[in-house]
Model the fold of this input.
Amino acid sequence: MSGKPGLSLAIRKALLTGEAGGKVFAARQVARDWRLGRLRFDLGEAEAASMPDRPVWPEGLDLLPPSQMPKRGKGGSERGRIALWHALAHIEFVAIDLALDIVGRFGGQMGEEFASDFLGVAADEAMHFALLDRKLASLGSQYGALPAHDGLWQAARDTAGDVGARLAVVPMVLEARGLDVTPATRDRVASSGDSRGAQILQRILDDEIRHVALGTKHFSRVAAARGENPPELWRKLVESHFAGAIKPPFNDSARRSAGLSLEFYGALAS
Done:
């Protein structure tokens, strides 16, 4: 048992892998090795402190504040299509690191089930990115060809000290927003005749419902440990740690499937 490599080092190495294909491979390898019992659960305070403040991303990736991102253009144009798939690829690429970081940073206090759940999420996000990167290649482009916004990792920095806040903001706000907007994007892509693109988006949507459900499950554990009502604690943490708006329209059925009832987000909707 003691001869096995530690999970913390494997996560750190994946976070510090910058090349996109290497990141995908590293994330899937960590998840596979953990699932097969090849890694030792060694997460604790020291290991959490060793996680990088920021993961390494591809050299030359042009990161801009969300407010400075160029307009995508019309979705029917070649430029608009590439911009759409590039934006989605960036979201999924950052999501790999968000899932790895939540395990490395909070796995020690939350336990092995938490680690297993979110390493599975990291593997899913890596697969999503690979599908989207392949889609970009079919359009004659690649990840990094366009600027990308830097807002997603800011959410990780803003919640680095509190697992409850991280769960409240990342799966239960940011990923839940994907449940709201992905069906309309899927339908637009399908109506343009791109059945393969629509299939990719449906696969992502199905997986993201499960990811939000995992976030909600573990958030409820945190709330119970703190003796708080989950929706009330969620609203407090979102108001403290998320600067954006919780805005409709909501995919209420997908959110309910993920355990995220209107009781959570209704009062904050703007």
The chain has a mean pLDDT of 95. The longest strand covers residues 63-64. The beta strands are 63-64, 148-149. The chain has eleven helices and two strands.
